[in-house]
Automatic annotation (TrEMBL):
UniProt record, GO biological process: terpenoid biosynthetic process
Catalytic activity entry: isopentenyl phosphate + ATP = isopentenyl diphosphate + ADP
InterPro entries the record matches: AceGlu_kinase-like_sf, Asp/Glu/Uridylate_kinase, Fosfomycin_R_FomA-type
An annotated GO cellular component: cytosol
EC number: 2.7.4.26
UniProt similarity note: Belongs to the isopentenyl phosphate kinase family.
Protein name listed in UniProt: Isopentenyl phosphate kinase
Keyword Iron: no
Organism of origin: Natrinema hispanicum
GO terms, molecular function: ATP binding; isopentenyl phosphate kinase activity; kinase activity
Residues engaged in binding ATP: 5-9, 209, 213
Classification of source organism: Archaea, Methanobacteriati, Methanobacteriota, Stenosarchaea group, Halobacteria
PANTHER family assigned to the protein according to its UniProt record, in alphabetical order: GLUTAMATE 5-KINASE (PTHR43654), ISOPENTENYL PHOSPHATE KINASE (PTHR43654:SF1)
Quaternary structure annotation from Swiss-Prot or TrEMBL: Homodimer.
Amino acid sequence: MIVLKLGGSVITEKDRPETLDGDALERAADAIAAALEGGLEDLVIVHGGGSFGHHNASEHGVSTTAGTHDVDAALAIHGAMKTLNQFVLRRLLERDVQAVPVHPFSAGHRDRDGTLELPTGQVETMLDEGFVPVLHGDVIAHAGAGATIVSGDELVAELAADLDADRIGLCSTVPGVLDDADAVIDRIDDFDAVADVLGASEATDVTGGMAGKVRTLLALEAEASIFGLEALATFLEGENPGTTID
């Protein structure tokens, strides 16, 4: 079973509010459809917020830890993410991928310590019935804080752990985790060894950037890969392009 994340920076113009990168999304959908037609089974897709979610979250001062009790703010962020989710679903459905949405705002919550609780029984049942669940970064109810952000990376971690994923893929705008000479780091198994070269995202990002991704993936049992869009088909064919994290 594969959990695949399509980064928000890949499928949107992340520095332009609510702007889709249609060409990139088409390429991603083509690769996914081809892999499924070629026999790939049990795929769960998560997509990031890009210029849809991150822009609205930043506008309202909401992050994974800073919450809001303003219903208009929560609905603005959730609405933007539902719009992006519809774009993703439409591209997949046009290619006969049996994609269905799972909106985290209605599916999970955080407790008072900020720990994410995300039931995954519905996702497992969707997989068993031949569907391709498509989740996304979202707002989520947070005990004592109103609503905060749940990132795509957090969702990937929860899904991979609960569904016992065999492989995890993060499709990014870079060909892998880059060192200070902009060369791809082949393998990471220790965060401290690469901490100095992991900087924050240049575009608006309320969910932790590359450093957060690497930390999250290192905590999981399944092997993970971070790679660029041009390597998505290769990853879905079973190879490990970009940076392997274990």
